[in-house]
Design goal:
The chain is 73% helix and 0% strand. It is mostly helical and 457 residues long. The chain has a domain of 195 residues. Helix 1 packs antiparallel against helix 7 and helix 16 runs parallel beside helix 19. It is globular and about 65 Å long. It comes from Amycolatopsis thailandensis. This is MFS transporter.
């Protein structure tokens, strides 16, 4: 490989990885869910009378990013620029009074994620498979690290939030600039692949996935009471029912969209969504357990993400991913049993070491599981639509449905930790992800052997 080729690979990898700083800065906010489906959240939930056009900016930006992946450096620039209000509001608090900025800002991180996925796909097709897989892992690893930075919602200690936001924003700007500067190097690389247009079925599935969350505008207490023939007051006493029904509608629509894209896309998106939704509640418990030791939390998250990337790029990625998901599920079963069904004891007893180990294990599991879906998708040139809109809408719908099992009882006061009382469901989703990874690998192996037998015959 020539020096010019090396520069194209290194420049692409470094610029895309640095660009993820915008995602970390945006998601490292307390009192928000972990592993938020940023792409699905770009769809508007309401239409303010005086900001209708502004409300469409995130949706239009995501749709454009899905179809303009050949220009991913400029997408990275656009995503970073759109994310700037998140950092600037920390320096100039008066900017928070402008509602248009709060509406536009969510457009930045999804566009950055899609640009990084596009870069990962090009690296894989260029022959830099390790770099491509690492970038795929870092798209979710960035959000996991952001969760460790945010800490617990009730924590009043300063964790260097302003400094982190400024550093991460500066890194993302540097990555965007580097992506544009290295365009010439990639153009001179004779082995750099040409972009492929999306096949119609993937285009249709991606558009459907991006638009699906807008269906929640039609789901409210009154309509649900009419459909279920129940009093409005009864539904109103259980607001989680509305969230769960809305999530179910989006989830069913997401499954249909994945089916339109084909079986390979369906199972890849289902694997990615299962492991993310399954890890949400235990990740919340792990992050809260080490809330008073922020440095340990950061180190655990970094170690877990790094371990997930290392095993994900190895030849035994499937075995490691399946093993990690199964071990994580068993740990959750043991944790639930050992705490008598009250996992918050990890927090109450300041069990920072078990919490840090759990955080590292879950980060490694999530990253490794998602990386295993990358090779086949990259070969087909569909990393962006599958691991972007399709996986995101399944996570969005799945997280909504999980609220139905996250309530302890009718008279229990809601808390941020409701979901951790049902770790069995999280463990079940992790086992589902393990089964999907193993099943896909087994089918690919049988198909390869069948093809070899046909050739030899």
């Amino acid at each position: 490989m020539s020096w010019g080729a090396d520069r194209s690979v290194v420049g692409t990898t470094l610029s895309a990885a640095l660009g993820l700083g915008a995602v970390v800065a945006f998601t490292a906010v307390r009192d928000t869910s972990i592993l938020r489906p940023l792409i699905a959240l770009a769809a508007p939930r309401a239409w303010p009378a005086d900001l209708v056009a502004v409300s469409l900016v995130p949706l239009v930006a995501v749709l454009a990013a899905v179809f303009l992946t050949r220009w991913w450096p400029w997408l990275l620039v656009a995503g970073v620029v759109l994310s700037l209000p998140t950092a600037l509001v920390h320096l100039f608090p008066d900017l928070g009074a402008h509602p248009s900025l709060s509406i536009i800002a969510p457009a930045g991180p999804p566009v950055v994620l899609l640009a990084v996925l596009a870069a990962a796909q090009e690296l894989w097709r260029r022959g830099a498979r390790t770099a491509g897989l690492v970038l795929i892992g870092l798209t979710v690893g960035a959000q996991l690290f952001a969760a460790s930075l945010a800490g617990a919602s009730w924590l009043m200690l300063a964790t260097g939030g302003l400094a982190w936001h400024l550093i991460l924003t500066a890194l993302s700007v540097a990555g965007a600039v580097l992506a544009v500067v290295t365009r010439g190097v990639r153009a001179r690389d004779p082995e750099w692949p040409e972009s492929r247009p999306l096949k119609p079925r993937f285009a249709a599935a991606a558009i459907m996935a991006v638009l699906l969350p807008m269906a929640l505008q039609a789901v409210d207490v009154v309509k649900i009471s009419e459909v279920l023939d129940l009093p409005v007051e009864s539904i109103g006493r259980h607001p989680d029912v509305v969230v769960a029904i809305g999530g179910l509608i989006v989830l069913v629509g997401g499954v249909i969209a994945c089916a339109i894209a084909g079986s390979r896309a369906f199972f890849a998106a289902a694997t990615s969504a299962s492991v993310q939704v399954g890890a949400m509640a235990p990740l919340l418990l792990a992050v809260y357990s080490v809330a008073f030791q922020p440095v340990l939390s950061w180190l655990a998250a970094v170690a877990g993400v790094a371990a997930g990337c290392v095993v994900g790029v190895s030849r035994r990625r499937v075995q490691f991913a399946v093993g990690g998901a199964v071990v994580s599920a068993l740990v959750l079963f043991i944790l639930d049993l050992g705490t008598g069904g009250v996992p918050e004891k990890l927090i109450d007893h300041n069990a920072v070491i078990p919490g840090a180990l759990l955080l590292a294990l879950l980060c490694a599991t999530v990253v490794a599981a998602i990386i295993t879906t990358g090779p086949r998708l990259a070969e087909d040139g569909v990393v962006v639509p599958v691991l972007g809109p399709l996986a995101s809408v399944l996570v969005f719908g799945g997280a909504g449905v999980m609220t139905a099992v996250g309530v302890r009882g009718q008279n229990a006061s809601p808390t941020r930790l409701e979901a951790v009382h049902h770790l069995g469901y999280s463990a079940g989703l992790l086992l589902l992800a393990a089964a999907l990874i193993a099943g896909i690998a087994a089918l690919e192996h049988l198909r390869a052997r069948s093809n070899q037998g046909a050739v030899s015959a």
